[in-house]
Structures are given as structure tokens and as C-alpha cells.
Amino acid sequence: MSAQERLTDALYGLGWGTVKKLPEPVAVRLGRTIADLAWKQRGKGVQRLESNYARVVPDASPERLAELSRAGMRSYLRYWMESFRLPAWSPERIKNGFDPKDVHYLTDALASDQGVILALPHLANWDLAGAWVTTKLETPFTTVAERLKPETLYDRFVAYREGLGMEVLPHSGGTAFGTLARRLRDGGLVCLVAERDLSASGVEVDFFGATARMPAGPALLAQQTGALLLPVTLWYDDSPVMQGRIHPPVEVPESGTRAEKTSVMTQALADAYASGIAEHPEDWHMLQRLWLEDLEPRPSADGRDGERP
Length: 309
Hints:
By secondary structure, this protein is of the alpha/beta class. It has twelve helices and nine strands. The protein has helices at residues 3-18, 24-41, 44-56, 62-85, 91-95, 104-112, 126-135, 151-163, 176-185, 217-225, 258-279, 292-295, and strands spanning 98-101, 116-120, 141-145, 166-170, 189-193, 203-207, 210-214, 228-235, 242-246. The strands form three sheets. Strands 1-9-8-2-5 form a five-stranded mixed β-sheet, sandwiched between helices. The protein has a two-stranded parallel ribbon with strand order 3-4. The longest helix has 24 residues, at 62-85. It is globular and about 50 Å long. Residues 298-309 have low confidence and may be disordered.
């Protein structure tokens, strides 16, 4: 493990060990202070966040984009402060910490025993939404996590999410899809954060007027297992309670090849995500490149193609 990896792991360990013990108002102020400091430094993550917001709000002035990126960093740090503290929250605090709209789409689907897939983007606090499902609805679910470096950091995230009642599978290794399909065929629940493709083999979609690539997994799982596919969007308001919406099911097209059906369904997910992100752009925590135009090789100073980011 490199020195940088040891430092990263130690900082996350400090967060989970210390922040969860702070009084909530102190944790809120700490998160906002860290967010403002990071925003003022204008590192690569803040610049990418602002660039992504420019696509979401194309008519925004530079001043408006700066306001959005500052609010976005505050929202992002609220996510981290809440996540560090979630293991110490009481069941009642978790139950009252999330107020989803149209939750009947989810409860009706769970009652059908045909399997349910919840697919959502990186909006607000998806871990809190998951904890609400396992606590308020008393429904366990399976999810997938990206393998992080160092390995000890990945292990921390897995232990954290398993402590909230989630079954966590590694994204890499090739076995996650089969396990998810089995859980769905048994009538289970699968939750996937699914607007950023990690495989470079996802489905191209129109997203805010430009082409992005999103994972095919949710649509393929719905086709292969007969599970219902429900988009979810989340957001914060001025209260301590996170808001959310369960969107109507994404239907499997009656005709077309598997690839064509997957394309249509993934575009429907993208449209649902876009509706939530457009309404609450500051709660979209996308500090990475997403659109294909941003992933293309860029010429270097000597005229040769630079490396693909």
C-alpha cells in the first residue's frame, strides 16, 4: 500500500470514527466549512462538477455556475457527514430522515414478489435511501460497489453498507450480474447507482442534449428476470429530511432485439434521472467525466493525441 493510499484509508477511518460522535449541528457546520474550503481551492473535482453543471444548466452565467458548484460541494459534504453518522443513527432517525414521494410504486412492486430493481443516479444520499428501505420497509436488498484502492478502504465501505442491512457485491470479477439475477428471480430487491458506466461497454443515451454512456445492467436484469425496473431521484431541501421520488416502472418493449430493448429502457432511465437532476442540479454529485465528448482524447502541446482521461 502506498503512502497516499494509507493516508486516504486513515482519513476515511477518522471520519467514521470521529464524525459520527459529533452533535449533529457541529457535524453540519463542519461539513459546510470543508465544502467551502474545497470550493475555494477550485481543484479538479470542483472544476469538473462545474463543467457538468454547465451541461445541465446551459444558459447559466459564470456567476450562476459558481453558485451551483458551491451549493454542489455543500450537498456533497452533507452526503459524507450523513454517511459517517448513519451507523450511529437510531432506527427512528433513519425512518424519519427520508420522505419519498410515490412510494406506492415500490411497495406495490415488492408485494408482487416478482423482483424489483431500483436504479438511481448520484443524487443526494443514496446510502440513506438504502438504510430507509432496510429499516422503514424492513426489506433487505443487494447492491454493487466499485472496488476502491486501497483494498482496506473498499473493505470499510462494504462493512459500512452491510451494517446498514445491504448485501454488497464487488463490481469487478464478473459474478455480480448472475448473483443479482438470482436475487431477483427469488423475488428480491436490487438497488443500483446507475448513471455512470464503469465498464466502457454501456449503452449510449441522450443526456441533456449530448451523448453519455450508461450501464446496461438494470435493463438487462429486468429483461432476463421479469423484475420491475423503477427509477429513483433524490434531493435535499432546507430541512434535515432528504426528499425523493419513485418514478413509474420502465416497461420492457414488446418488440425488438435485446440490444434494442436495452437501449430504449436505458434511455428511459436517463430521462428520469435528467428530470430529477434538472430540478435539483446542486444535489448531483458528479465530480467525474460522464459525457463522451469529455472522454475523447485531447491533442497535447506537441500536436500528438493525449491520453484518454
